[in-house]
Amino acid sequence: MANQANAKSWRENRLTSRLGLQYPIIQGPLGGLSSQQLAAAVSNYGGLGSFGAHGLKPEAIRKVIHEINALTPKPFAMNLWVSMEDEGALTSTEEAFQRSLSPLAKHIESVGGAIPSYRSYEPIRFEDQVQVLLEEGISVFSFTYGIPSKQILDEFRRQGIALVGTATTVDEAIALEQAGVDVIAASGFEAGGHRGSFLQPSEDCLTGTMALVPQVIDAVRLPVVAAGGIGDARGIVAAFALGAEGVQMGTAFLACEESGANTLHRKAILSGQAKQTALTRGFTGRLARGIKNRLLDELNQKNIEILPYPLQRALVRHLSIPAEKAGRAELLPLWAGQSANLSRCTDVYALLDTLVNEVSEIGNAVQNWSAHRQPADARE
User: Which helix (H) or strand (E) holds 234?
Assistant: First the structure.
């Protein structure tokens, strides 16, 4: 039994101290389904709201930061992808575009959309996105799909901006620690959305959260956040038992009305349609997890040609935008993790209240038990 006099609350650890949080709960950045309202609400509650800005041009990112700052005085994270495009994106041809369009064209026409024409790819520079974050003086910079250059990381450290890197393997976690990040988010393959792997192909980085998190914790001395398949208070307590000092939850927040998910998407998560998820490259060109539906199954067929990221993502949007208007959920990319069927709350504050109240019943004992199993230097 841990000495109660030295016991800490589950709310108080290196993660909450470094990021300035009241609760060690991070809202996943949610990529293109982020919203300023959701990020601000989570931060106002005492967790860490996040906004996935990887698809935005620099001035659009600046506008988002200003809008979130107007909604909360609390810390929030801006999330970017270090790797902005796959090999071949800059040289992909019109012929490849037409081959990838072919299986989508009939669906686009069926929902009243316009068949797109080929346009050459115009990249967004990661360095230009980063410059906006530095100029705006954000509190937390989280990133995935790689590690920024030493020069970039040094500038964030110089400004006192906390750095959260994403690892899908132990080797990636070690690389992030060596690069000097503050926090590692260990992402198991149960997670919805993109895998974020950077040392090996994503298909070779499919370790589950339960196996990944304790191995990462044993390999590094930094605070570790468990991500992937955590859908309720039970998942948070389990993460604490594994040694994590916080959790990152995506799908549970995606179901809330404050998220950027459309009504069809939220309904799919909350109605039981998300009981089966699958991995695909068909939605964007990069491996990601979504609800298994007609579109996912068709794009996972062996004879389908997939464009490099982000060309495939842009192509599929020509279907998803009119499909949403037509109410055709079976033709939408519906991002969700394997815990999607645990989602119950549609209000972000109700969700956070439930999580905090239920974790508080046992969280202190579990986190203190776990902390006392770690080497002394890992607790300092």
Answer: helix 233-242
Return the HEC string of 57-76.
CHHHHHHHHHHHHHHCCCCE
pLDDT at 376: 55
- Range of lowest pLDDT (5-9, 221-225, 273-277): 5-9
| Angle made by CA atoms 190, 123, 55, in degrees to the nearest 5 | 40
Output the pTM of the full model. 0.95
For the chain, the maximum distance between any two Cα atoms, rounded to a whole number of angstroms, is: 69
Q: Decide the pairing of beta strands 277-280 and 224-227.
A: unpaired
pLDDT tens digit sequence for 139-165:
999 999 999 999 999 999 999 999 999
40: three-class secondary structure by DSSP: helix
Q: Give the mean pLDDT of 332-350.
A: 96
Asked whether the CA dihedral 14, 18, 22, 23 is positive or negative, the reply is: negative
- Rounded distance, CA 275 to CA 290, Å? 11
Given a contact cutoff of 8 angstroms between Cβ atoms, the answer to whether 285 and 307 are in contact is: yes
**First CA to last CA distance, the chain:** 20
Which run of H or of E encompasses 187?
strand 183-187
Q: Which residues contact 198 (CB under 8 A, 6 or more apart)?
A: 82, 83, 145, 146, 147, 172
Query: Among candidates 94, 24, 59, 106, which has minimal Cα distance to 295?
Result: 106
Mean pLDDT on 280-291: 98
Torsion of CA 106, 108, 110, 112, to 10 degrees: -150
Whole-angstrom CA distances from 180 to 19, 148, 164, 212 are: 15, 11, 10, 20
Confidence grade of residue 372 (pLDDT, cut at 50, 70, 90): confident
